[in-house]
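Handout, section B. The chain below has 417 residues.
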Amino acid sequence: MKFGLFYEISIPRPWTRETERTVYNNCLEQVKLADELGFDHVWAVEHHFLEEYSHCSASEVLLAAVAARTKRIRLGHGIRQVIANYNHPARTAEAIAMLDLVSNGRAEFGIGEGATRLELGGFGIPAKEKRAMALEAAEQIANMMVMEPYPGFEGRSFKMPCRNVLPKPVQKPHPPIWMACTNRDTIKVAASLGLGALAFSFINEEEARTWSQSYYDIIRSDACVPLSHSVNPNIAMVSAFSLHKDAAEAARRGQEGFEFFRYAISALVTNDTVPGRSRLFERFQKERSGGALGADAAGTESLSAAFQQSRGIGTPDDFRAHVRSFEAAGVDQIILLQQAGRNRHEHICQSLDLLARDVLPEFAAKSAEREKRKGEELAPHIEKALARKTRMAPLADADIPVVRASVAKPVVNRSAG
């Protein structure tokens, strides 16, 4: 079992001119601590225009800053928006490769498409076409990171001529590629394409087992035809996270932030929005205090009960049992949602430290052997899957088009003089 951190960069109103800078610097400190404590991954989203919920619109910048401050933790785009309207595929290929280079081969590449009208409408993306557009772009991004030169492409969502896309990543053929998954259907899509599954839904252990079985059944079957040049057979699932020796205190520190995260996901899809005038956290607090969210904000008993509904918030023993159940269900990585709402920086750091001391050693001790067994079992299936892939044909040297100079060469009059 691997352990990751998840950052949306949640910043509820009201805020000051210094708020965003403070939150970003706190996040950088948290990841630096996590690297020192032995955590495996950090994942940063790319969202646009989603006030209060996510102020992380340029995750490549955040991850580059993380790379400079850390030594071993892997750096995940969870996810990067790959549709050309957001980011031209060549720019994404360049950014992923550069992150891989400056981090000495620690980049992970999650792909996504966006879900809200704020994002899709802001970039002129038809909602009904977003999945096809994202997968088309993602396949070509993988080709760009591998092929020299890239032959060029003309598709439904973008086109570009033959160019050698530089730089090339350290990891070969390219960094592991993942796909954002919010339900069992998208888990199946990820498996059919040989992509890791970043499950951004909060599900119980029984559901996790069902999702995992569906995913790995497809990875082992003829239905798996890789989108990229490798297969990344892994499932990572997001979990609420707040630890303390006292379960009620863990809930007091982390439950509200977790509930705000869940509330905001829904509200940004279902509610109207006035740009620049969001009142998301204010509305959340009113509904929460009024009982509309099914939780009373006050009282030890209600906080303890809240933990029972949000596995991942509680004592180290509670969390250890939580991780064991997901490990038994076939989940490969648990991603910790700790920075949300008004969760405090010092509490997040204390939770990370407690997890590292009291929980991580059990799972770190058996991680290498578990990965080895899994790799050996899946190796023949992955080999067959890669053999099924239809690859873009490289250009022969004679077929590589010449890019003509934009300035004509001067004509020399050899008869003069």
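Note. The CA atoms of residues 9 and 24 lie 7 Å apart. Compare this with the example in section A.
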